[in-house]
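Structure tokens please, single chain.
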Amino acid sequence: MKTALVLGVSGGFGKHVAMALLQQGWCVRVLLRDANKLPTELIDRVVVFQGDAFNHEDVKLASQGCGALVYGINVPYERWQLEAIPLLSVSLEVAKQEAMTFLFPGNVYVYDPEQGPSFLETAPKKSITAKGEIRIKMEAMLKKAAQNGLKVRLLRAGDFFGKDLASSWMNFILKANPKHYTLTVPGPMQMPHTWAYLPELAQQACGLLEQDSWPSNYHEVNFEGHRFSFSDLKNVIEKRTGKPVKVRKLPWWLFRFLGLFKADIRELVAMKYLWFNEINLETGHPLMKGLNGHKQSELIDSLLESGLV
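Here you go.
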């Protein structure tokens, strides 16, 4: 039986990829510092190893016999500078030793909006933020590992949304009330933004792991996802539910003030540009194009499945 080790399973990406792998008949192992943080959807369905992703021996023990490693670790913004690269180094080293396929979720931080608005997999990587520079360094590590024989699959996506995601922007800005919805917008109403519905993204991640005919060890795919503006979101919710959507602006001035005292909010403000620039993910892979789209019907279906509307 195909076996995968999923790191970061308590986060949205890791959990959904683990669930998708189980549906495809994989055996799934997870590594957790605290076994009590295993998502309820995975209880009694996965093999749990207790340990730390910083610890080489913990990761190695959990990965023995696995054919794939899913890197779903999401370091809090304020700890990226110290932890992001060392954590990835441990997993890459173990994956090379165990000859596993390495799946990594990419993001749009590696792009300069002025070179857009649309970006294919071949687009140059040029960041305008410190966190973007870290991600570029991490992707360089992935490419170097692939040159040394490791099979690497990078799946790049926009902002996640799905069910019960505490750290999702969508779950933060869209709230349901008995008679209406509240939409707190962090940018212009007409600005298109790229989103990834996690169950769809997880299915594509499984496809990348199960496809062995890629021409090289390093393979990068953009997940086009759902592309819509806040005006589009407002209109589709009102049309489908019959309830009004009340719009208010995110008070960035307050976030900037709070950032003087809290590092996590300060780091959040540094990424404000993502809401004021259009960054569209496009794929040059015919087999991947069209698996997810921009239709309003697909958007509302995803929002309904997520319980957001």
